[in-house]
Amino acid sequence: MSILGNRVVRLEDPRFLLGEGRYVENLGLEGALSVTFVRSPLAHARVTEIDASEAEALPNVQVFTGADIDAHPFGPPPHWHITAGMERPLVARDVVRFAGDIVAVVVTEHRASGFDAAELVMVDYDPLPTVLSAEEALKDEVLLFPAVGSNVANRGGSQERDNGLFDGCELVVSGALLSQRLAAAPLEPRSAAAVVGDDGRLTIWATSQTPHMGKMVVAGLLGLDPGQVRVVSPDVGGGFGAKMIEPEGVLVAWLARKLGLPVRWTETRTENMVGLPQGRGQLLSFTLGGTRDGRLLAYRLEVLGDAGAYPALGAYLPNLTALMSNGVYAIPEIETSTVSVVTNTTPTTSIRGAGRPEAAQAIERAIDLFAAEAGLDPAEVRRMNFIAKDAFPYTTPTGATYDSGDYEGALDLLLRSAGYEDLREEQRRRRADGSAVELGIGLGAYVEISNPVGEEEFGEIEITEDGGAILRTGSHSHGQGHETTFAMIAAERLGLPVERVTVHRGDTDDVPKGTGTFGSKSTQIGGVAGRLAADAVVEAATALAGDYLEASAADVVLDLGTGSFHVADVPEPSLSWAELASKASAEGRLGELKIAHEFQAPPTFPFGCHLAVVEVDTETGKVELIRFVAVDDAGTLINPLVADGQVHGGIAFGVGQALYEEVVYGEDGYPLTGTFVGYGFPSAAELPSYERVEMVTPTPNNVIGVKGIGESGTVGSTQAVLNAVLDALAPHGVRHVDLPCNGENVWKALREAKA
Amino acid sequence: MTNVALTVNGERRETDVEPRQLLVYFLRDELGLKGTNVGCDTSSCGACTVLLDGESVKSCTVLAVQADGTEVTTIEGLATDGELHPVQQAFHEQHGLQCGFCTPGFVMATVSLLKENPSPTESEIRHALEGNLCRCTGYHNIVRAVEAAARAGA
Amino acid sequence: MIPAAFAYRRAASVDEAIELLADEDAKLLAGGHSLIPALKLRIARPSVLVDVGRLDDLRYVRDDGDRIAIGALTRHAQLTSDPVLERDCAVVARAAALVGDPQVRHRGTIGGSVAHADPASDLPTVLLVLDADFVARGPDGERTIAASAFFTGPFETALAPQEVLTEIRVPKVERSVYLKHARRAQDWATVGVAAAVVGGSTQVALASMGPTPLRARAVEEALANGAGAGDASDRVGEGTEPPSDVSGSGEYRAHLAQVYARRALERL
Fold it and tell me: A703 CB near a chain C CB, below 8 Å?
């Protein structure tokens, strides 16, 4: 009986429940010095002088500035096509470009004295004009990199509009939506520690989703042979796409080598709110055209992305938005155009969804607008235009090849599960009663791209002497439950109880290569690699068992129920994994049962449909989410319990963008939302329970049929809530509300509509 | 330096501390109890929640010197003889944790909540947890865990 | 975030606390949930902390005839469930239940909240609407300060540097309400409106509409002249300077104050 598809409680839970999580900050590192960063409070300024004398007068304090750091700057990889000349020095030298830019590094004996000393580092700044919005930056009036001559960091898509795009459309609607800048805000702040061993090798512990990539970056920036670097990313308290490798981690490594002593650093939340790269920040301008009876013919999406001060992945993401702009619809013609610019703000990167929520937000807003203009039900307009179930694989005009999907099925399931007609009836009743609290119902259909760059992942199965298995994976896990789900995948193939499979991840010395966990790729490449490695080990074990049972491998079977090998139809004699391993070990052949596999596959396309029900107090503008129904289909379910959790978390993230969250800068570029007071993402008191409805449409891209579910909840939810708010306010003439739909933005929209 | 003597997880501990040392760092750095986490600077997230004389408090907003003469229970003090406390067990069964960083705070807040309100409604649970933030779970399964713990008579 | 260093003294009595406050860089520590966050951000940098948190004889709620006496160190959680308040001055219990979150309410004290005088705070606003009396003891003895004279500016009170707030006295009221608009349950009020019938007249006070909690005198005047809830609340903005911050613009706050004033009066 297969364990896949069962709700298995997580193997990794005990240590977290007992307070024994192996977070970097919990690591014991004897004699480690404490690192504290001095950061610019100004968004754009020349650094004219740094006087560390007062700080260094305190006992056991050392201060390093940009001039001291002999390391390469952070530069984006070439395949992101970022404008050259916008690299980020680890420590700012002559110019700081965002509030939070590092200007000095303080090393002390203890954490507390680090704060004391950092306060005493005197930095003289000569303020420069700031540019804080992408629209302003596009004017190239205030330049962040004068030598480059422009603020444009990346361009993509059509550089000229096709003026005939909407010819033949009876109805054309346009709009714009600012998918506002968000903070990832993982509960664990970043932490790093480093030490150079007696053998001269550098070991770094880091809160990273991508330890192997981190190793290459550190080696590259510090001019080291990668073989001399070990990165360990143990338990990490949430990443959401933002915790990769940043200057702080590299500096900690640099210090360990410079000082020949162990060093460690943990950021404060305030630092995290400026130092951890942020997400979204895309201005989406859309135009959608079609026939009056609801058929879509053409779509244009223009994206203006805010890359922040030093362009990195965030500068590239609008291209991914453009790729997915099509959504779930069979739109014959699509034109996209993207541009990313630098601004004096925190650099942007992939944050849960990374470009796909933006794409979905735009098309779903557009289609609701279109439906409203046409006087048609928004569910019906969607239904009319879905890519048909039998049309897969489907290549969109934007160049994405969707693997499998059943978009109408998802909508039908959603509407049925939510009782859509009853909801509309209740809405009619309430409107007739004339309450100041309006009920709104919003839909968001979506498709998203997981494993977006079609990457490869490493998986290895090693049978241990006692007949258990170690699965080494290049994937990471920082909440996704891979220690359980990957163990389930291997256990199923090996015929072992799931507790006998131990997943190793995060240590580049233990796992030779890896891509890491982001983009919802892990199960479909890492889990599958583990499965293929398990299959290879079963094959090898079968042959080995054959040797011991004096039969040919072709005649030997593995009984998955008992986890033992025997000749087909001859249950005894048999060899359990433990017996087999013991025998093999005695003969020095245990190594034959350690096999690695690398698996690469093209992207897969999870999809779904979300429905949000909100109540809007039209006097105060306050929105309450009272119900959320989600259909999310990411193919075969390994562990529905874990999948539920991923969807729930994703939904909360998307609802946060819809109703609560926004990174806000003051006029001078100082962040106004730099704490968990200012940046108010929701607690349990602000959210309802969710109704998740399972749907499974396997992918042909891997043998398990699994896609990636980690970001699905987020990609589908923001627009469902936004559409619900707009649905609630439609009778008041409101056609647009700025995200987030907090009380003030709703109130402003109502006021404008009245005017 | 100021002398503090308190009971932590049933054990008497006495030492000298700097007055400015927060209880959370005292627990983590002086006593080596790393289960209680620091998640923010503004007493917003509750990851540092412990019980002080039986009531949930944010240990990042209490000075170690203020805890002198009190009984503190941290996450490490809940399980007995390796067996999970019913609240811990409920979080496990309901998948009420993902990355685990906020979990000790939620568990301690739940222990306190159920002591004050043994049969809370969903709304009461959600409001009782308004001082604890989680970025992974969306809270749904945390609420299920509290309900399960309440049913188990935790 | 780690506070800057300070010395620490524990006061065994109010009189001892008064003596220790002679150091002008000294600050009182009660529940710590206003002070410690400020210490951590290094906004407050006292050289000495005088801890009065153990003065358990300042923790009480007493029916004192026509007034209720509340010890300054009574914690918000105690106020929330106190039967005397529930019966005779419910708005104090209601407001206390809205302060922060359960963990904060287990530690924060009414005296600490009042002395901290955050214009966005719930309890100061409610105590203002009730015309509460604040009893303080200093080197020159004890005095009573009326709520209307107590809050002098943002985070500023009429307390002298060496004075310790010991008791808050509120009237018994039959009708009282506090409405709070916040983004999230744990947040400070974007706007708060307290209303109560005190000594026969309806009084209204506002949180987060100016540099201190404010009495909405124009609303009270309109009511006294027979205006209904809607017309009276139209005047709620008079004399206010609502701040603009990430929780809301001044304009939005002014609008909210009007809505909540009307609702509070209707509910009264």
Answer: no
Residue numbers in chain C where pLDDT is lower than 70? none
- Residues of B whose CB is below 8 A from A480: 98
Architecture in CATH for domain C7-51: 2-Layer Sandwich (3.30)
Q: What is the mean pLDDT of chain A?
A: 97
Whether residue C83 is preceded by a cis peptide bond, meaning omega within 30 degrees of 0, is: no
A218 pLDDT more than 80: yes
Per-window interface: A 252-271 vs B, CB < 8 A: 268-270
pTM above 0.90, yes or no: yes
Bridge partners (DSSP) of residue B8 are: B11, B72
Tokens of C96: 């206390």
Gap between the Cα atoms of C180 and C213, Å rounded: 13
Task: Give the pair of three-digit tokens for residue A507.
Answer: 């240590």
Q: Out of C4, C107, C185, name the one closest to residue B62 (CB).
A: C107
Token pair 């100082």 is found at: A670
Subunits next to A (3 or more Cβ pairs <8 Å) are B, C
Burial category of C205 from C-beta neighbours within 10 Å (exposed 0-12, middle 13-18, buried 19 and up): buried
Q: Hey, which chains touch C, using 3+ CB pairs under 8 Å?
A: A, B
Task: Please give the DSSP secondary-structure letter assigned to residue B119.
Answer: S
Q: Average pLDDT of A500-523?
A: 97
User: What average pLDDT does the segment B52-73 reach?
Assistant: 98
Instruction: For chain B, give every domain's residue range.
Output: 2-76, 86-151
CATH superfamily of B86-151: [2Fe-2S]-binding domain (1.10.150.120)
In chain B, residues with a C-beta closer than 8 Å to the C-beta of C53 are 66
**What is C176-267's CATH superfamily?**
CO dehydrogenase flavoprotein, C-terminal domain (3.30.390.50)
pLDDT value at position A1? Answer: 63
What was the pLDDT predicted at C24? 85
Cα distance from C74 to chain A (closest Cα, Å)? 25
Give which of B110, B118, B116 is closest to B139, Cα–Cα.
B110
Give the architecture (CATH level 2) of C59-171: 2-Layer Sandwich (3.30)
For the cut 90, the answer to whether the pLDDT of residue A2 exceeds it is no
Q: A642 in contact with B at a CB cutoff of 8 Å?
A: yes
Q: Where are the domains of chain C?
A: 7-51, 59-171, 176-267
Question: For the segment A709-729, what is each residue's pLDDT rounded down to a tens digit?
Answer: 999 999 999 999 999 999 999
Nearest chain B Cα distance for residue A641, angstroms: 7
- Asked if C183 and A111 come within 8 Å (Cβ–Cβ), the reply is no
Report how many Cβ contacts below 8 Å link chain A to chain C. 54
Chain-chain contact of A19 with B34 (C-beta, under 8 angstroms):
yes
Residues of B in contact with A681 (CB under 8 A): 133, 135
Q: What is the ipTM of this complex?
A: 0.98
Residue A66 to residues A70, A103, A124: CA-CA distances in angstroms?
Answer: 8, 7, 14
The total number of residues shown for chain C amounts to 268
- pLDDT category at B154 given cuts 50, 70, 90 is confident
Closest chain B residue to the Cα of A692, Cα to Cα = B140
Pick from C1, C5, C246: which is nearest to A664 by CB?
Answer: C246
Question: Which of C183, C208, C233 would best serve as a mutation to test chain A binding (most A beta carbons within 10 A)?
Answer: C183
Q: How far apart are CA A667 and CA A715, in angstroms?
A: 31
According to DSSP, the β-strands at C26-29 and B71-73 are unpaired
pLDDT digits (tens, 9 = 90+) for A621-637: 999 999 999 999 999 99
Three-state secondary structure call for residue C50 = strand
Amino acid C203: pLDDT: 98
- Yes or no: say if C261 and C214 are a contact pair by the CB < 8 Å rule: no
Judged on CB neighbours under 10 Å (0-12, 13-18, 19+), A736 is middle
Interface size between A and B, measured as CB pairs under 8 A = 179
Q: What is the CATH number of domain B2-76?
A: 3.10.20.30
Please state the rounded mean pLDDT for residues A398-403.
97
